[in-house]
């Protein structure tokens, strides 16, 4: 594996700039993370395919990032290639009740567009940060609605299979999990919406936004919910009941507003967040006998939690 060789190849083959040692703190909502050895914004399918095949040929690890709103990146960074989706992946079109959407589109943009056109089905996603690709990969949503329910199809690219399409009902959707074929990057999705009542859509979205503002620490860097809700319970309730609200390690703290959010109060490192994750898991296990599983995704190398 040679980062230097991969850098040369990527610079030759991609139309956009390829950066060395790009701080991941610039690309995560936690504002945490050391450098990615290689960082490429892929503006086209050609760029993305080339990036994936260079990574495969050179044997270097790679990862795709959306807006990094569900990611904790290691303080040591990522010793491989991080790709983000650029220009060609930021387009969308609505045909009747079908929204065809590039994976790099910001989710909030299409939530608002669907609303403007009186299309129902995406109200649950109002206020969820990130891209459409990230939302699909995470099966993002609320407690009882998630994006997988409205995915008609996904277009995926991988180094070994090239470009292929998967029907929404062929994907194994789970709670904050989507069975995207291994090594695949989602590049486009078709979402099925329905004609609805504009006022009803507005009311649902406004109520949801009000609830978010009341219950989430929105002005402070975080990665949303740290843990998935265990069956029949809420991670936030369990953490709060274990007396952990406000507990901090370095610059990372359990939010006073929502106990399932870890916030970066200033200068937090990934090590701070990880230590807090360990403390929370241990304390909740002791207090309630429940093992909390992280919802956030880890990028780079970490000591096992
Ligand atoms: C304040 C706040 C509130 C939040 N509220 C919610 C909520 O209500 N509901 C909810 O579900 N989540 C919530 N989140 C978490 C987060 O916003 C979602 O998981 C979001 O969908 C992630 O999108 P992203 O583009 O930022 O993905 P990233 O965080 O960049 O990536 C997340 C994962 O998806 C993978 N990925 C990204 N793009 C692609 C792609 N194109 N193809 C394949 N894999 C890909 C990444 O490799 C990574 O493993 C919240 C986060 C914050 C900060």
How would you describe this structure to a colleague?
The protein has 305 residues and is α+β, with helices and mostly antiparallel strands. The chain has three domains: 3-87, Uridine Diphospho-n-acetylenolpyruvylglucosamine Reductase, domain 2 (2-Layer Sandwich); 91-199, 2-Layer Sandwich (Uridine Diphospho-n-acetylenolpyruvylglucosamine Reductase, domain 3); 217-299, Uridine Diphospho-n-acetylenolpyruvylglucosamine Reductase, domain 1, CATH 3.90.78.10. It has seven helices and 19 strands. It has helices spanning 3-13, 45-58, 107-116, 132-138, 198-215, 235-241, 270-288; strands spanning 18-23, 35-42, 62-65, 71-73, 78-85, 92-95, 98-102, 119-120, 151-158, 162-167, 173-174, 177-178, 185-192, 194-195, 222-225, 248-249, 252-254, 261-264, 297-299. The strands form six sheets. It has a five-stranded antiparallel sheet. Strands 1-2-5-3 form a four-stranded mixed sheet, with helices on one face. Strands 15-18-17-16 form a four-stranded antiparallel sheet. A hairpin with a 3-residue loop joins β9 and β10. α1 (3-13) packs antiparallel against α2 (45-58). The longest helix is centred in the last third of the chain and has 19 residues, at 270-288. It starts with a helix and ends in a 6-residue tail after the last strand.
């Amino acid at each position: 594996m040679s980062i230097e060789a991969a850098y040369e190849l990527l610079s030759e083959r991609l139309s956009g700039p390829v950066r060395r040692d790009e701080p991941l703190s610039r690309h995560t909502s936690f504002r945490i993370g050391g450098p990615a050895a290689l960082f490429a914004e892929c503006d086209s399918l050609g760029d993305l395919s080339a990036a994936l095949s260079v990574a495969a040929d050179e044997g270097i690890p790679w990862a795709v990032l959306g807006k990094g709103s569900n990611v904790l990146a290691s303080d040591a960074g990522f010793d491989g290639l991080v790709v983000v989706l650029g220009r060609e992946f930021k387009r969308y079109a609505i045909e009747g009740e079908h929204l065809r959407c590039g994976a790099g589109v910001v989710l909030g943009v299409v939530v608002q567009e669907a609303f403007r056109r009186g299309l129902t089905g995406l109200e649950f996603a109002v206020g969820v940060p990130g891209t459409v690709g990230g939302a699909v990969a995470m099966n993002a949503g609320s407690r009882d609605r998630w994006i997988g329910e409205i995915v008609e199809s996904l277009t995926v690219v991988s180094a070994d299979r090239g470009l292929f399409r998967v029907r929404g009902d062929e994907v194994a959707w789970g709670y904050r999990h989507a069975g995207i074929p291994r090594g695949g990057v989602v590049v486009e999705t078709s979402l099925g919406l329905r004609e609805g009542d504009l006022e009803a859509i507005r009311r649902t979205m406004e109520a949801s936004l009000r609830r978010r503002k009341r219950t989430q620490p929105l002005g402070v860097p975080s990665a949303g919910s740290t843990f998935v809700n265990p069956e029949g319970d809420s991670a936030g309730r369990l953490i709060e009941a274990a007396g952990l609200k406000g507990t901090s390690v370095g610059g990372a703290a359990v939010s006073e507003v929502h106990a399932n959010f870890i916030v970066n109060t200033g200068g937090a490192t990934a090590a701070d967040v990880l230590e807090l994750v360990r403390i929370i898991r241990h304390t909740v296990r002791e207090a309630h006998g429940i093992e909390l599983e992280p919802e956030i995704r880890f990028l780079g190398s970490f000591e096992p939690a």
